[in-house]
Amino acid sequence: MRLINRRASPDKVAPSDDYEKLKSDLHKFVIDRIEDDNIIYDDNQKKLEEAISAYIRQYCRIYEAVIDRETFDSLEKHLLNEIIGYGPLQGLLEDPTINDILINGPRNIYIERAGVLEKADMRFLDDRHVLRVIRRMISPLGRRIDESSPIVDGRLEDGSRINAIVPPLALDGPCLSIRKFRKDPLTAQELLATGSISEDVLEYLTNAVASRTNILISGATGSGKTTLLNILSQFIPPAERIVTIEDAAELQLRNGHVVRLETRPENNEGVGEISARELVKNALRMRPDRIIVGESRGGEILDVLQAMNTGHNGSMSTVHANSARDAITRLEMMVGISGFKGSGDLILKMIGSALDLIVHIGRKADGRRCVLQISELHVINKELTLKDIFIYDDVSRKVLRVDGGKNAARSADLAHI
Which contiguous run of DSSP H or E holds residue 251? Predict the structure, then answer.
């Protein structure tokens, strides 16, 4: 047995072929001994840790392996994660500085910190190892993943959102994407401190929420739409009844009167799906003061707009788009696929009368997320128009209030859709 000698903390031992081979052999050895000795550890992690430590020593005696203290501690922790956790991902899931975890096959693991992607110094043994961890994640959800059902979405017990796709659809091995759930939601003060929002923008949005303005937040994937929606919801008066609708529950509203609804995918037999549109329709029967849809992505937007037009002022949602104007185009498309039979002009008028404000948020090259544009919607002479109120200025790196057209580069002239 080759000597393993690394001087590093248990979390920082870099993977190598020797180390991974030893860890794989030890894993099989320990599992066999646990089963033979009938060790029960469901509610006793300490007992399992002691057993793993003893089995590693036993393995070293049998196979004359020599390992140092740091490597011993690392192996002990990794084996514990393999048996009761999520293997190599356990430490990443426990790291509060990490927002996203992206696995592209067994040897390519990426993480996002502060909006910047970096490659993690760890790996899985092989495709089967990745698949085993994925199945452990989705098992409590009653879902399965295999060649006949190669895509799965779900939410972990801690609220983290996962998506997995495996061969034959994923050509380079099983892929897993994890959007981690933050236990303590960001506050408005934290956004101010990081420059994601300015005080005048925050004051404007706070007043808009308090005055029951209908707001749509647009942006790309990972731009911070849900984070901003969470923060804006904090300014809803506590006496109001809010119904939230999400595909995967991420909103962390701290109001006193909140009803949380979550869509349900079809089961393994292909039945039982409950869509966002069905939940929006049901929410209207629940006497809501405001309806908040975590993300509008399909025909449910028609019911959301109708709710906004029929007394449910102060409702909010998010949508994927590249700008405020692109958000309008996205809404048009979604209303079209909902089965609505009206003309394009009628759809635009309905959007304009339902929505009051579009807040566009994005991520800059340095990874910083910030509000890039705030636009008011108006219907003038039967036409839908957008008026920019705030626009991000690349020179000052700040969101500036448009000053009535005095600055030609940031004119607030109405732009017809």
Answer: none
Beta strand spans in 201-315 (E): 215-219, 242-246, 258-262, 290-293
Is residue 379 within 8 A of residue 349, CB to CB? The reply is: yes
* More confident position, 7 or 79: 79
> Against a cut of 0.85, is the pTM above it?
no
CA distances from 33 to 19, 36, 50, 52 (A): 21, 5, 13, 9
Q: What are phi and psi of 213, to 5 degrees?
A: -80, 140
Task: Report the pLDDT averaged over residues 281-295.
Answer: 92
- The letter for the amino acid at 108 is N
Three-class SS of 214-239: CEEEEECCCCCHHHHHHHHHCCCCCC
Most confident of 20-24, 205-209, 254-258: 205-209
Q: Is 401 helix (H, G, I), strand (E, B) or coil?
A: strand
Distance CA 308, CA 215 (A): 10
Beta bridge partners of 357: 215, 376
Contact 327, 360 (CB under 8 A): yes
Q: From its phi and psi, is residue 314 left (phi > 0), alpha (psi between -120 and 50) or beta?
A: left
Cβ atoms 15, 123 nearer than 8 A: yes
Q: Which amino acid, one-letter code, is at 208? A: A
CA separation, residue 219 to residues 109, 299, 325, 326, 393 (Å): 26, 19, 11, 10, 17
Report DSSP state, residue 167.
T
Spatial contact of 326 and 218, defined as CB atoms under 8 Å apart: yes
CA diameter of the chain: 87
The SS3 assignment for 28 reads helix
Residue 165's pLDDT is 96
The overall average pLDDT reported for the chain is 84
Mean pLDDT (whole number) for 317-329: 93
More confident residue, 182 or 236: 236
* Rounded CA separation 275/265 (Å): 8
Condensed to tens digits (0 to 9), the pLDDT of residues 131-157 reads 989 998 998 887 889 888 899 988 888
Q: How far is CA 359 from CA 16, 202, 229, 303, in A?
A: 47, 11, 10, 21
Confidence check: pLDDT of 8 > 50 = no
